[in-house]
Write a structure and sequence with these properties.
The structure holds two protein chains of two kinds. By secondary structure, chain A is an alpha+beta fold. Helix content of chain A is about 25%, strand content about 25%. Classes of the chains: A alpha+beta, B alpha+beta. The complex binds FE2/S2 (inorganic) cluster (FES) (2 copies).
Chain lengths: ~775, ~160
């Protein structure tokens, strides 16, 4: 009897493991409270490392006396700028060479924000370390500072970066870290030809990542004297490279489980401090930030301002977009240029039918906490301005905003010149959109949300107003032609496979989805895939977990490796079974021949180990994408405004997402729900406030409010049927896009409810209340 | 000073510093599931049960638990497997990074003992102090409401 081999190309319906909500591979350990996070398993004899931080926003250390601290019993060392290498670098964990300026030292003679590191103390325990901090005497020469980013470029503004070593900054003498501009067509000319135009200025805040696990790392010399760093990072390979740059030593960097990152751990934070101590003392060293340090001395989202001008003809055809911005990178230029460019590159291609488009502006230094990567990476900032402006235009045209945005947005088979113009810190790449279900997202989403019926309802009743808003978004999947992921697969004689990936699971579930991809391509089950990730001595390279790249880039690398392994298995089986490779196929962890004979994977590798043409089956593959296929999303918001207080509640928030195949639907949904909550936080609550001396007053969870359980009312997530031909089993990214829409969707809903256009996030109830009073609709 | 108390049924007598908080004592004893998220009673990651009631261990003096019983998430699973709360959270995708989960499990357990039939609003109110930055809360709330229903229909 002849058994038919299954079709080569797996179609969407034919998946065995992919597109299924399998349990997370690390789920058991996480729910049972196993010691899997960095600070759960540091060496017993580790020194505790604490950082002395600057109380001034801008100052020069005239004199620093550490003698008292050093002589305190139990203090192992106190390090100042005199004791660490003077090597300029950027903390940003990016591909090399980094597009961020080199403007940072582990410790410097100059401090540039309240919280900047002044000295490193290592002691036998926390108490002694804290005692020692108090014994360090520092004489500062306090300099003028600039806290407001709109004044960073003023004539008389103090120069924040006057160090001679700085490189890669655009114009540090005028506090400009980066500058970018591009124009396609002629925006002024197009605007003058439009029937309707809108112009406005929009602000977004410096949000904190507020991941539940603070920054943490420990380091030690292994028995052979090799430096090992265990750290809560999104970028282990970049950490290894940057540590080598600073200290000139090779190291092994291991990432255990991470308690959330969201971009906040895409930089070198604690690693340099523990390394300095271990190299100085030869002893293990451990440093865990307090919540206050995590809030005040790590990274924030780049605060931005955009002046937006848009115009359309009277039929509702969008003709022109002009986005001109200013971004605040804080004291150091981490991710300065790239986050700024993403505010354009991940928003403008969505409206690809315009005749002219311009984007540009400056990224400036201020004496505030350095900004860095944060989920969305500029897109939420840009989209707040752009989508709000399009909403205005729709109203001016008397068009339903869903209809207006949909009419002008990109479709499958189309492209945008912006893809080519704008990459990350450099030119981009041309790409044709191969999967885009934005029509389904908009139309089905509107139906599920009851958009048309809701918009007929009365907006103000008694002391409450209700409003309905919509926002469109796109993102990318990896940084095209830069991000690289590697995967190694090794077959064992018990039929299991070791999957080793450089990809960094930061709670997102990437270990799980990569195992699913491997299991699918190897025709086996999840329990046969043993994942090990992010250990620079063991796993292949990966740029890291950022830029929505893991599913797409690391996923494709894993798929390539698994497919190659499948070929190796078939080849070995053909030799053992004395068959032609073409007559064999894989199914359920076995190799079958046409005549029905079969060999299990376990049998094959056992033979190869001991008796037949002996060898270890192992493959490594790498993947770099030449494109970055955008996921798309349309979100609908219903808000309720209390006219007595101005308080806004998001009572319904519906997301309809096109992320291609969902490798694991429940994890994908979790990504969108989580990003939505962070977006609601950015829209309604989260903002840092400094006192006049530059001290951040919002430094804990009482003063800096992130959404609590009670603040999130009803978030719904739907996925479009979509298949990205270049993605692993049709997948695109899903981790960041959810943060792009809450700001504009909520602001648009407020406009719909009470006719007040919000120009600044977060939307504070007291400010809204005053606007309601001005309009005469506040309930007194 | 010396303090004696039980953790997950096991008795411990420990020498503590003046003003030592329970979070530190528990982590020193090896109960690493008790997480350090803020230290200022504002995140819920350090939640444990004290005689069955959820408390924030970062602001509970160890001296105050002398003679009392503590329960941490380590007591919710054994070689046989996970408790139904843990399973429910896993199945619903309510565990992303998992850093908030030990505190969430012990608090949810107390909720379900006090109120076996909670509405979504009850869950949100009772667990409002357990912050989670990853999930957006929806999956966690769904998991707990669903579990309560299953328990009531005898699915335990
Ligand atoms: S650590 Fe106790 S509430 Fe945050
Ligand atoms: S799962 Fe990460 S904080 Fe809750």
């Amino acid at each position: 009897m002849e058994v038919k081999a299954p079709k080569k190309e797996v179609n969407k319906e034919g998946f065995n493991v992919v597109d299924k909500s399998v349990d997370k591979v690390d789920g058991y350990a996480l729910v049972s409270g196993k010691p899997v996070f960095t600070d759960d398993f540091y060496p017993q004899d580790a020194l505790t490392v604490k950082i002395l931080r600057s109380p001034h926003a801008h100052a020069i250390i005239k004199h620093i006396d550490t003698s008292k601290a050093e002589s305190l019993e139990g203090v192992a060392c106190v390090l100042t700028y005199k004791d660490v290498p003077r090597v300029v670098y950027t903390r940003a964990g990016q591909g090399f060479p980094e597009p961020s300026p080199y403007d940072t030292f582990v410790l410097d003679k100059k401090v540039r924000y309240v919280g900047d590191a002044v000295a490193i103390v290592a002691a036998e325990n926390e108490k002694i370390a804290e005692e020692a901090l108090k014994l360090i005497k520092v004489d500062y020469e306090v300099l003028d500072s600039v806290l407001d980013f709109e004044h960073a470029e003023d004539e008389d503004a103090p120069i924040i970066h006057d160090e001679p070593e700085i490189s890669g900054a655009y114009d540090p003498k005028h506090n400009i870290a980066s500058h970018y501009e591009m124009e396609i067509g002629n925006v002024d000319e197009e605007l003058s030809k439009c029937d309707v135009t809108y112009e406005g200025t929009f602000y977004t805040p410096n949000q904190s990542h507020a991941m539940m696990e603070p920054h943490a790392a420990f380091s030690y010399l292994d028995p052979n004297g090799r430096l090992t760093i265990v750290t809560s990072t999104q970028v282990p390979f970049h950490v290894r490279r940057i540590i080598k740059r600073i200290f000139g030593v090779e190291s092994r960097v291991i990432k255990p489980r991470i308690g959330g990152g969201f971009g906040g751990k895409q930089a070198v934070h604690v690693e340099a401090y523990v390394t300095a101590v271990t190299l100085k003392t030869g002893r293990p060293a451990r440093c865990v930030y307090t919540r206050k340090e995590t809030m005040t001395a790590s990274n924030t989202r780049h605060q931005m301002r955009f002046k937006v001008r848009v115009g359309a003809d009277k039929n509702g055809k969008l003709k022109v977009i002009d986005l001109w911005g200013l971004s605040n990178t804080g004291a150091y230029g981490e991710h300065a240029l790239t986050t700024f460019m993403v505010a354009g590159s991940k928003t403008l291609p969505l409206y690809n039918k315009v005749n002219a488009v311009r984007f540009g502006g400056d990224v400036v230094y201020t004496n505030t906490e350095p900004a860095g990567a944060f989920r969305g990476y500029g897109a939420p900032q840009g989209m707040f301005a752009l989508d709000s402006a399009l909403d205005e235009l729709a109203h001016k045209l008397g068009m339903d905003p869903v209809e207006f945005k949909l009419k002008n947005s990109i479709r499958e088979g189309e492209t945008s010149p912006v893809f080519k113009y704008m990459g990350e810190g450099r030119e981009g790449v041309e790409q044709i959109v191969e999967s885009c279900k934005i029509e389904e997202c908009a139309l089905e989403g509107a139906k599920l949300f009851n958009w048309h019926e809701k918009r007929k309802r009365k907006r103000i009743e008694g002391t409450k107003a209700h409003g309905y808003g919509v926002a469109f978004a796109m993102q990318g999947s990896s940084i095209a032609a830069i991000d690289m992921g590697g995967a190694t697969i090794k077959m064992n004689d018990d039929g299991t496979f070791n999957l080793m990936v450089g990809a960094t699971d930061l709670g997102t579930g990437s270990d799980t989805i990569l195992a699913q991809i491997a299991a699918e391509a190897l025709h086996t089950t999840m329990d046969k895939i043993i994942v090990y990730s992010s250990d620079t001595d063991v796993t292949p390279f990966d740029t890291g977990a950022y830029a929505s790249s893991t599913t797409y880039v690391s996923g494709n690398a894993t798929k390539k490796a698994a497919e190659k392994m499948a070929k190796e298995i078939l080849k070995a089986a053909a030799e053992i079974m004395k068959e032609n490779v073409e007559d064999l196929y894989l199914k359920d962890g076995k190799v079958f021949s046409k005549n029905g004979d079969s060999l299990t994977y376990s049998e094959i590798q056992t033979r190869l180990f001991y008796t037949f043409n002996q060898r270890q089956l192992e493959v490594t593959e790498s993947f770099v994408s030449q494109v970055s296929p955008p996921p798309y999303m349309v979100s609908f918001a219903e808000v309720e405004i209390d006219l007595e207080t101005g308080k806004v509640e998001v009572i319904d928030f519906l997301n309809y997402v096109d992320c291609g195949t969902t490798i694991n639907p429940i994890l994908a949904k979790g990504q969108v729900e989580g990003a939505t909550a962070q977006g609601i936080g950015m829209a309604l609550y989260e903002e840092h406030i400094w006192d006049k001396n530059g001290r951040m007053v919002t430094d804990d969870f009482f003063t800096y409010k992130i959404p609590a359980r009670d603040d999130i009312k009803n978030v719904r997530v739907y996925f479009a049927k979509s298949y990205e031909p270049t993605g692993p089993f049709g997948a695109k990214s899903v981790s960041e896009i959810g943060l792009d829409t809450p700001g504009p969707a909520i602001a648009n809903a407020i406009y719909d409810a009470v006719g007040i256009r919000v120009h600044k996030l977060p939307i504070k109830s007291e400010e809204l209340y005053f606007e309601l009073v001005k309009k005469g609709i506040a309930a007194l | 000073m010396k303090v004696t108390f039980k953790v997950n049924g096991k008795s411990h007598t420990v020498d503590i510093d003046a003003g030592e908080f329970l979070l530190e004592t528990l982590r020193k004893l090896g109960y690493k599931s008790v997480k350090h998220g803020c230290d200022t009673a504002s995140c819920g990651a350090c939640s444990v049960q004290l005689d069955g009631n959820p408390v924030l261990s970062c602001r509970t003096f160890t001296a105050a638990v002398d003679g009392h019983e503590i329960k941490t998430v380590e007591a919710f699973s054994n070689n046989e497997g996970l408790s139904d709360i843990q399973l429910a959270l896993l199945k619903e995708g309510a565990v992303q990074c998992g850093f908030c989960v030990p505190g969430l499990v012990v608090t949810a357990d107390a909720l379900l003992r006090e109120n076996p039939n909670p509405t979504e609003e009850d869950v949100k109110e009772y667990l409002n102090g357990n912050l989670c930055r990853c999930t957006g809360y929806e999956s966690q709330t769904r998991a707990i409401v669903k579990l309560a229903k299953e328990r009531r229909s005898g699915g335990e």
